């Protein structure tokens, strides 16, 4: 192993460790990795910023804008309203919602497809009494397999297409992924339509299958007029039959206490409450508690009339500025006009004050704000409302326009009329120019952290190849694969990509694995195309953890899932997808010849 190879592998190892540690944002890790690679001399200074102008970055950014335009269309919600009367059983709900998300993920970014259907699924769950945990994980997994059907469905497809173009001068076409992708989708949907039963008992109570929300953490002030002033903590909790308990009391200029049941309550006490949201509402009303913080320094619009104030539930999305910080640090009331009333987090007994709780991706928040600005504030904070928002675009044709623009872009690429980057860049520009999105909405739709990650990792990925590191890794894999039949080598590639994705991010894994898989195929005397397809499928399909893909993380809070709930459905699906892909790829992309 040469010194440049040692350096580039060391940089990748440190980056992987930082990704897993998850204390530093992944885009900053990528920036530090690029800086280290330039300083160490494995990336030439004149090539350091080539990634920012790479077609992959342009395509991903453009698809995100067009996807946001599709997300504003009312056609999807109309279709679901038509189908809703037929979704009477959990099986029918899973099949309909997962099928719809899977189809949509084939033509737009899969995280966008899940974001569109998440509020719809929660509404269906509430109306029918089905546990959201039975619906949301199958939807997330459906979006992942749906993304492998077309070139633009997921970032790994775009990245392996770039790798093929660099090797052969010809990229994969728009629908080159479709034959294998449809086969994998069909098998996955058949499994999910029955496999959802493995989620029974997840995120719900032991006695029934009704939706059981995670306990909420809220903060309320005991006023002087409260009938419980002077009574004990136990008496307050008994009022709602113990469904809400006082996790802490804040008094004496901010000192926090963890009270026993005999503690007496005094006017002015700040009570940190934890429990069932319905029982908490009852307790707040009957005990005349003051929920949240009000007063002169309240939310923007606090002086507005009471009927102009709204309370909404919203989930913290990946990339939200709330993740990793507190409401106090962000000064939410002063800067955004939002008053944080309560937080729901599955699987952890939280006792911190609401404003001091360090928020996480997947947390469900109860927020209060002016009706006119609350929706915009949540959007700016990277939170998804958990009730469907009536998005009226004013003109009926705008419901069809973004879908039409996406269809034209895909058809133009499939027909070979224009390159992929130009087609989707044009569609993104027209999405704004024709009024589907405002410029502000378009910029907000662009996931800047993932673009920075891609732009920084592209030069590092190229360095892996240029230093001979890819050939070295390929040789190791080829040595193992040499003892296997040809189809076993292909299966090994799928499994290796699936194993690496939870630790690196699917786009990063594709950037590293694509050249390695191609060179392994060359050393084995096989065609590179099937191995690149194997990398694309392996990178896109992480069903074992919530951290491997944003779609999995997005449903964690609303579904009430814990980390170890994912393998219950994900492990058999992983084995099924890996086997199906390994058998289907050689039928479409011959291993030899």
TrEMBL record:
<feature type="transmembrane region" description="Helical">
    <location>
        <begin position="569"/>
        <end position="589"/>
    </location>
</feature>
<feature type="transmembrane region" description="Helical">
    <location>
        <begin position="56"/>
        <end position="73"/>
    </location>
</feature>
<feature type="transmembrane region" description="Helical">
    <location>
        <begin position="28"/>
        <end position="44"/>
    </location>
</feature>
<feature type="transmembrane region" description="Helical">
    <location>
        <begin position="140"/>
        <end position="160"/>
    </location>
</feature>
<dbReference type="InterPro" id="IPR006037">
    <property type="entry name" value="RCK_C"/>
</dbReference>
<feature type="domain" description="RCK C-terminal">
    <location>
        <begin position="205"/>
        <end position="289"/>
    </location>
</feature>
<feature type="domain" description="RCK C-terminal">
    <location>
        <begin position="299"/>
        <end position="384"/>
    </location>
</feature>
<dbReference type="InterPro" id="IPR051679">
    <property type="entry name" value="DASS-Related_Transporters"/>
</dbReference>
<keyword id="KW-0812">Transmembrane</keyword>
<feature type="transmembrane region" description="Helical">
    <location>
        <begin position="6"/>
        <end position="21"/>
    </location>
</feature>
<dbReference type="InterPro" id="IPR036721">
    <property type="entry name" value="RCK_C_sf"/>
</dbReference>
<keyword id="KW-0813">Transport</keyword>
<dbReference type="Pfam" id="PF02080">
    <property type="entry name" value="TrkA_C"/>
</dbReference>
<dbReference type="Pfam" id="PF03600">
    <property type="entry name" value="CitMHS"/>
</dbReference>
<feature type="transmembrane region" description="Helical">
    <location>
        <begin position="445"/>
        <end position="464"/>
    </location>
</feature>
<dbReference type="InterPro" id="IPR004680">
    <property type="entry name" value="Cit_transptr-like_dom"/>
</dbReference>
<protein>
    <submittedName>
        <fullName>SLC13 family permease</fullName>
    </submittedName>
</protein>
<feature type="transmembrane region" description="Helical">
    <location>
        <begin position="400"/>
        <end position="433"/>
    </location>
</feature>
<feature type="transmembrane region" description="Helical">
    <location>
        <begin position="94"/>
        <end position="120"/>
    </location>
</feature>
<keyword id="KW-0472">Membrane</keyword>
<keyword id="KW-1133">Transmembrane helix</keyword>
<keyword id="KW-0677">Repeat</keyword>
<feature type="transmembrane region" description="Helical">
    <location>
        <begin position="172"/>
        <end position="196"/>
    </location>
</feature>
């Amino acid at each position: 192993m040469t010194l440049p190879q040692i350096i580039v592998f060391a940089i990748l190892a440190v980056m992987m460790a930082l990704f897993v540690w998850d204390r530093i944002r992944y885009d900053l890790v990528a920036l530090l990795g690029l800086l280290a690679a330039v300083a160490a001399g494995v990336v030439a200074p004149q090539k350091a910023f080539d990634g920012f102008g790479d077609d992959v970055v342009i395509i991903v950014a453009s698809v995100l804008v067009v996807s946001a335009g599709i997300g504003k269309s009312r056609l999807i919600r109309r279709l679901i309203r038509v189908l809703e009367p037929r979704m009477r059983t959990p099986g029918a709900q899973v099949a309909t919602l997962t099928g719809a998300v899977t189809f949509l993920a084939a033509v737009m970014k899969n995280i966008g497809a899940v974001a569109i259907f998440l509020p719809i699924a929660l509404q269906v769950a509430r109306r029918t009494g089905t546990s959201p945990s039975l619906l949301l994980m199958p939807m997330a997994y459906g979006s992942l397999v749906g993304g492998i059907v077309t070139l633009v469905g997921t970032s790994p497809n775009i990245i392996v297409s770039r790798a093929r173009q660099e090797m052969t001068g010809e990229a994969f076409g728009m629908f080159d992924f479709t034959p294998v992708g449809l086969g994998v989708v069909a098998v996955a949907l058949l499994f999910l339509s029955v496999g959802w039963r493995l989620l029974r008992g997840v995120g719900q109570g032991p006695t029934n299958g009704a939706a059981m929300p995670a306990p909420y953490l809220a903060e309320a002030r005991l006023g002087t007029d409260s009938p419980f002033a002077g009574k004990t903590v136990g008496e307050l909790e008994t009022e709602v039959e113990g469904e809400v308990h006082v996790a802490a009391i804040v008094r004496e200029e901010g000192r926090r206490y963890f009270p026993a049941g005999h503690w007496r309550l005094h006017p002015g006490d700040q009570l940190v409450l934890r429990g069932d949201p319905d029982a908490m509402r009852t307790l707040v009303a009957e005990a005349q508690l003051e929920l949240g913080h009000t007063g002169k320094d309240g939310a923007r619009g606090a002086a507005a009339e009471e009927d102009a104030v709204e309370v909404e539930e919203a989930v913290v999305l990946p990339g939200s500025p709330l993740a990793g910080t507190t409401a106090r640090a962000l000064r939410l009331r002063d800067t955004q006009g939002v008053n944080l009333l309560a937080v729901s987090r599955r699987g952890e007994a939280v006792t911190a004050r609401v404003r001091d709780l360090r928020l996480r991706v997947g947390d469900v928040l109860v927020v209060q704000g002016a009706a006119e600005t609350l929706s915009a504030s949540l959007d700016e904070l990277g939170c998804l409302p958990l009730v469907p928002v009536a998005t009226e675009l004013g003109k009926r044709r705008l419901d069809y326009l973004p879908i039409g623009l996406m269809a034209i872009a895909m058809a133009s690429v499939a027909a070979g009329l224009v390159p992929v980057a130009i087609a989707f860049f044009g569609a993104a520009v027209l999405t704004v120019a024709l009024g589907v999105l405002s410029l502000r909405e378009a910029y907000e739709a662009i996931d800047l952290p993932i673009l920075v990650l891609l732009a920084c990792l592209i030069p590092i990925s190229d360095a892996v190849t240029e230093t001979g590191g890819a050939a070295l890794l390929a040789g190791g894999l080829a040595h193992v694969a040499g003892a296997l039949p040809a189809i076993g080598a292909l299966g090994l590639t799928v499994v290796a990509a699936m194993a690496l994705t939870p630790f690196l991010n699917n786009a990063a894994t594709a950037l590293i694995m694509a050249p390695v898989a191609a060179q392994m195929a060359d050393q084995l005397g096989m065609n590179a195309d099937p191995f690149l397809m194997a990398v694309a499928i392996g990178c896109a399909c992480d069903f074992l953890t919530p951290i491997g893909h944003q779609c999995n993380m997005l449903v964690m809070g609303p579904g009430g899932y814990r980390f170890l709930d994912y393998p219950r459905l994900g492990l058999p699906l992983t084995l099924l997808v890996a086997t199906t892909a390994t058998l289907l790829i050689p039928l479409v992309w011959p291993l030899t010849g």
